[in-house]
Design a protein that fits this description.
The complex is a heterotrimer of chains A (about 325), B (about 475) and C (about 290). Chain A has about 325 residues and is an all-alpha fold. Chain A has a domain at about 85-140 and about 190-320: MetI-like (MetI-like fold, Orthogonal Bundle), CATH 1.10.3720.10. Chain A has 13 helices and two strands. In chain A, helix 3 runs parallel beside helix 7, helix 3 runs antiparallel to helix 10 (about 240-255) and helix 4 crosses helix 7 (about 185-210). The longest helix of chain A is centred in the N-terminal third of the chain and has 39 residues, at about 30-65. Chain A is globular. Chain B folds into two domains: about 55-175 and about 335-400, D-Maltodextrin-Binding Protein, domain 2, CATH 3.40.190; about 180-300 and about 425-465, Periplasmic binding protein-like II (D-Maltodextrin-Binding Protein, domain 2, 3-Layer(aba) Sandwich). Chain B is about 40% helix and about 10% strand. In chain B, the strands form four sheets. In chain B, strands 3, 6, 11 and 12 form a four-stranded mixed sheet that branches. A four-stranded mixed sheet of chain B has the order 8-9-7-10. Chain B is globular. The termini of chain B are far apart. Chain C is an all-alpha fold. Chain C folds into two domains: about 10-70, no CATH class; about 80-250, MetI-like fold. In chain C, about 70% of the residues lie in helices and about 0% in strands. Chain C contains 14 helices and no strands. Chain C has helices spanning about 10-15, 15-45, 70-80, 80-110, 115-125, 135-145, 160-165, 170-180, 185-190, 195-205, 210-225, 230-235, 240-250, 255-290. In chain C, helix 4 (about 80-110) crosses helix 11 (about 210-225), helix 8 (about 170-180) runs antiparallel to helix 11 and helix 11 runs antiparallel to helix 14. The longest helix of chain C is centred in the last third of the chain and has 36 residues, at about 255-290. Chain C starts with 8 loop residues before the first helix and ends with a helix. The mean pLDDT of chain C is about 85. Classes of the chains: A mainly alpha (about 325), B alpha/beta (about 475), C mainly alpha (about 290). At the B-C interface, helix 1, helix 3 and helix 10 of B face helix 3, helix 4, helix 6, helix 10 and helix 13 of C.
Amino acid sequence: MAAPSLTPSKAGPPRTPAPRRTETPPGGGRFTLALRRHLTAHAFLIGAVLCFAVFSWYPMIREFFLAFQSTENGRTVWVGLDNFTTVINDPAFWQAWRNTLWFTVLALLLGFVVPFVLALVINEFRHGQGYLRLLVYLPVMLPPVAAVLLFQYLYDPGYGLLNELLGLLHLPEQQWLQDADIAMVSLVIASTWMNMGGATLIYLAALKNIPGELYEAAELDGAGLLRKIWHVTVPQTRLVLSLMLLMQIIATMQVFVEPFLLTGGAGPEGSTTTVVHLIYQYAFNFNDYGAAAALGLMLLVLLAGFSAAYVRLSRTEDA
Amino acid sequence: MPSARRVRRSGAAALVCALTLTALAACGTSSSSGDGGSGGSGSTDPAAPLDPKTKVSITIDCMPPAAKKAELKQWKEDVAAFNKIYPNVRIEGRSTPGQCLEPPRFTAMLKAKSQPDVFYTYFTDLPQVLSEDGAEDITAYVNDKTVPALKDIDPDVLGMLKRGDKLYGLPTSNYTMGLMINRKLFQRAGLDPDSPPRTWAEVRTAAKKIADLGNGIAGYGDYSAGNNGGWHFTAQMYSRGGDIVDASGKKAAFNNEIGRQLAKDLHAMRWEDGSMGKTQLLKWGDLQKQIASDKLGMFLAAPDNIAYMVQQLGADYDNFGMGPIPGGKHTLAGGNGYMIKKGISPDKIKAGIAWLNFKFTTVGKGQFDWARTKADGLPVGLPQPNFWQGDSKRKDDAERARNATMNVEAFRTFTDNPVPSKPEPPKAQEIYKILDNVMSGILTNEDADVDKLLDTAEQQVDQVLAKP
Amino acid sequence: MSTRTLISPAQLARPRGKRLYRAVFALVTGGFTLAFLGPLYWLISSGFKDAQEVIRTPPTLVPESFTPGNYSQAWDVMDLSTLLLNTLYYAFGALAFQLVLDVAAAYSLSRLRPLFGKAILGMMLATLMIPATVLVVPQYLTVLDVPVVERNLLNTPWAIWLPSVTNAFNIFLLKRFFDSVPKELLDAAAMDGASPLRVLWSIVLPISRPVLGVVSIFAVVGVWKDFLWPMLTLPDPAKQTLNVGIYSLSNGVPVNVLIAALTIASLPALIIFLIFQRNIMSGLTAGSLKG
């Protein structure tokens, strides 16, 4: 399929000169002009807006309806709050929320802090930066399923390489994905390995934009390493940091491939069942779209509240 | 910049509009695949067999993937042979590299009504297929003219594809579970491979002996993920005389002494004896890999697993044997077949049934052409699939025996000690998912609280059953 | 080195500073090499082991049973060329759609000030906060039967391409960049009577190369990495993407062949990355910072 291109030569037949803005007569012409301006503007918008409408906004509304409906033998009926009761009474419900929260915390600790610290360190190096950046970004390019299955092989408690390495270091072997206590940590490690390249590179670039004089000035004030980081580096990169934090949280909430492939989704005693996995479970294993939508709606409301709080917070900080 | 050239605004607007419209309008791939073009006259009587002059094309899923070289070759030969009788029927096979039917994809397919004209299902899928209105009632189309061996198909097996009097599919295979063993490991551990353990206590002792061989070898293995854990929990409950759902179909029936004993035995094998290997959260395919590479002594499986291991995992079939399911009270029975997509033309339905009959339900042809299977280096002599009775059974058994390429003795205890079979519970996949947690709890947590695991699962299963 | 960083050059010049620097440098470089190249080495080398060695405890560092046949077997079984071509087709199609529709939309929102522009942008950005996986169910049902045009997009590339346009983050990046284009430049062009399309094409786009690069990378990588959506919307095995194809294969072949397959699947992207690493990495960081 040839992609439609935006070449100006295609842009319509007769090229009569458009009236200059300054030449327009006052009065009714201004209205026509404004109308025309809006029409043009919306002509540019319409493609994306239609896509959003069909594949994003409409599904959101539909999610809302689905949550209060049920389909049996091809007939759809309104069931009030039945789907919500089903979902809340599912013993997996609270566990899934706990797991999601735990995963988010872990993913932020590892996926947010580690790349920043690494970027700080790499940025100090006088050579080899290119090589390190290359390395850290390498896994991002792998097909995620390949990377995840590689981790499954590394994590295997029998013949896996990681336990072998622990043995060499005289550390106790781990059950990794098969231990309800650390299965989630194992998932986050795999996920961080696969994804931290992007964040590290962005932090590095942000660090390079910090004017050197700020550090010199801080040193004149007698600031030590940590104080320099806290008073110069962090404030100077705040915009990037907060943007990345937001993205990280969004990404974390969507995590699906790692638990789905590494622990079969549920994990040992359901310890890696996340809310998103539960939604998937309802919809595509139990064929219960209503329950899936009800749970999805809850997650949606939570995230909407969260994002509102975030926007508010960032506004007050700017003020 | 050539400022003299001016483009009219409306031109720009038109362009963007046009792009968008093409984008949407060009989604011109129609959903219905109903363009087989029934050129032939075709009798309107559903009971009449397909008129060979009828020009029709049908799509069929679960054609063997490239990894199953021999089966794919056979499929192609069968299509060619079928086309000698029906030169105007075009068979379009579709294949999946891994497991052909995965529940999520299957659900998606039904929802989308995107199933092929002739689609593959597990016996347990019937309620879901009917609730999505996905399969054609083929009762009128299936008779002793269209499927000559119909009367010899085990009514229990055929019944799996019926709701009331209405028939919705034809079986391709059936299975009952038994205990698959690795003969090489049995010998090395000083056990007799010709008499596999018959009780769960014997399984435990044998597993311990095999695991003592060391080198990462597990004695007994079981699933605990991907709904397969629950499936095997069910099989074990049945084998011990227990049940998953009570007779009313509304209550869980596994939270009792049988269930507890089952859980405790597995837990002891995993943690006290260390005979179940370290790697858990296994799903279908994992244990096969282990036993094929001589890392596993025993697991519960149907005989057809051997064909899979020989073909796809490069295993040697002489290395395997089978006994009846330990405990021997009941054995989980299941199977699969093909259904016909709802709403396709009568000619297509007839063509689909003609093909299914040729490939799957004719003694001496298709999947029951044992001489060819032997020539292609695939195992012959497995006791299943075998849904025949009467004359057909006699003929087919004789053919199997004549072409047997494997040590039939290795399956003697399995075939000589048939265990009464029992179908899967209602809402099987949902219940299996819940019981996965019980299995993963037992197998991954040394301090697992068996009572609590069963209590939770019981509560969840009750809830699932209470739903309409 | 002219840029001044966290630690002052004076500190580094001291003998203790030098030693510490060398130690940290060696540690980090060594650690990185192990952590990022190690698994890849393991992947490639394990693909050469035979069925027994690949699951041996303890594992062998260098394959003793050299079995290159795994690779040819994996190639045959997986039909990698089809999967790869499919994925590229979806990825570049999605890129084309996003470049045309999202750029036009961002330009309009940034410069043409349409009626309700702010509200529309707000509604677009709102979708950022909703995990795609939450909407997967209604979105999936929508793709089955697209409203108004009543088409089923399942098993067609449109199921990937059109939803990919709803990339609010890319629109946001583009809009931010267009906002930063000097107003005088555009006003001058408008005074000459150039149409908005002309201004976009001749003035805005040429200076937007960096951000277009970033958006392109995000668009392609988005499709390259997606799993759940293509798994649901492209159930036909002949139309699957690489990720879904490997997943389908994963429990149907012996461990060593699977690992060989993973290696083959990873190589094309790694090679492309190594060749274009400078462009990819500089584009990625430069663009997202300015955005």
